[in-house]
Write a structure and sequence with these properties.
The chain is an alpha/beta fold and 442 residues long. Helix content is 55%, strand content 9%. The chain contains 20 helices and eight strands. Strands 5-6-7-4-8 form a five-stranded parallel sheet, sandwiched between helices. Strands 1-2-3 form a three-stranded mixed sheet. The radius of gyration is 24 Å and the shape is globular. The protein starts with a helix and ends with a helix. 36% of the residues are buried.
Amino acid sequence: MPPWETCLQKLQEHISADAFDSAIRPLQAQPFQGGIKLYAPNRYIRDEVKREYLPLIVEFLSEFGGDGLVQALEVEVGQPSELKPKGPKPSLKGGNGRSRARGGLDPAYTFGSFVEGESNRFAKVAAQHVADDPGGSNNPLLLHGSVGLGKTHLMQAIGNFIQSRDADVRIVYCHCQVFLESMVEAVRLGGGAMQQFARRYQSADVLLVDDVQFIAGAPQTQKEFLKIFNRLWDDSRQIVVTSNRYPRYVQGLEGSLKSRLTGGLHVQINPPGKAMRVAILKSRAQSRGVSLSEEVAGYIATVANANVRELDGALQSVIGQARFIGGEVTLALAQDALRHLVGGLGRIINIGEILRTVADHYDVKPAEILSKRRYRHVVRSRHVAMYLVKELTNRSYSDIGKEFGGRHHTTVKSACAKVERLVQTDPELDEEIRSLVSDLKR
């Protein structure tokens, strides 16, 4: 594996998902004799990389590519010369579909490559309806939920689907951080720069805007965004927006913008359950030419359970380690590769810890959770404890039933399914589960 790709994997393990997506993922690398040159899309990302992440990059490149590689390391604004367009622009029709489409779309993001489950089924259906009828009744479409749950995938799948049917449709995708930085730069430049900035977005037939929360607290940027939004909406051009939470709860967003964002169809994407995480892992591994056993997929899904992005990072670590040592992807290898996810000395959460944590949270005794009592608050704590054991350990329904007072495996399965359904519709329970998982992982 090339040193820069290996470096990316290590960076993904050592910094937050938000930091990786905003500062590292936009970088493009171009090897040259004696070193590597990194290209950032703008000076803000370049300066952030130099200020915050350059020491880590140097450390990992030295580890995998030798000290000589980093002695000539450079970070510039722009893109590699081999990626700069030469001659006439190629047609978007035909081809193998792997080159980056117009508007910044990633061709890998399609509806076919999106793994569907209970937590995201409605969001996928909504996105497909928008793709079939852009500018129709589902305008704008707002997708909201925590990081790493597939919002960007579905948004770009809409753009790719529309463009596959009509290459002349103008699709514009942007991350709101880039929107904010580009507007600041346009204001600084003066002259006609602001008009050019607005024209880029106002000319879109389909506008895809990622992470709208990034312009919270920036009233002038929100004002300009709202003008663009209104112009497109008045012309029945499709707008798709993502946010890390429902706009009403994003502090710093103007009321008029919140109203616009929620004036169409809005869909929440929830974290995937364990069965879906296993399905995602198997699908992603297969796309990389790796066969993942149920045992290994179950283990990865157990220790990397925050979101799909964490799953991807864990899978990359396991596959990368297997390739480095030339071995097969086994449970022992996965456990070694993911030691950093289960705490010191490979500590894994056990049933006793889960029982104690849930009991403390609901102010009941562990013995009550294991008893036959049917008081409402005891039943809720029992169901939540069963659900967490299934999510955070490798124990089967039968094993859990035995631990919980000799209950039948169907009782445990029913309890887990009930909690998984409720998490999708009950924000209070969703928050309780997140808080418990956070406590257990400390």
